[in-house]
Design brief:
137 residues; four-stranded mixed beta sheet; 2 helices; 31% strand; elongated
Length: 137
């Protein structure tokens, strides 16, 4: 198979509040915000320059088939990692916009630098800066 993951769905309590959080604090841009006739509102966001989108699925919205989302709940995502070139700079930029991180500063590990946060529904995210491994010779 030759493909590309285009979208990841996360469940939220309030699409409007989540859209505001992602676009005003977390550095995402709105990609889709439509309500087709007879269907639920469909909202997606993505990072600038990135094809992958997060679909903000409001708890209780219609699904096809109807029982597809019966076990979905906010805050149940396993964690989404956002690779960044400079975790400390991204941390400072997003903190200045009001984003609250779990730690007071990014944490450095042998495998990279990380800073974690959750959206208002408890979905988990990590900014990850991979280490600068020595070039192989």
């Amino acid at each position: 198979m030759n493909g590309k993951i285009a979208q990841v769905t996360i469940v939220v309590h309030d699409q409007t509040a989540s859209l505001e959080f992602y676009t005003q604090k977390a550095g995402f841009e709105k990609r889709t915000d439509v309500t087709p006739p007879g269907a639920s509102r469909w909202v997606t966001v993505g990072l600038p320059g990135e094809d992958l989108e997060l679909a903000l699925f409001q708890l209780g919205s219609k699904t096809v088939p109807p029982d597809a989302g019966k076990n979905w709940k906010p805050g149940a995502s396993g964690g989404i990692q956002i690779r960044v070139a400079d975790c400390r700079a991204a941390f400072a930029e997003l903190s200045a916009k009001g984003l609250k991180f779990r730690e007071s500063q990014p944490v450095e590990y042998p495998w990279g630098v990380i800073a974690t946060f959750s959206d208002p529904d408890g979905n988990n995210f990590a900014l990850v800066q991979p280490p600068a491994w020595p070039a192989k010779t």
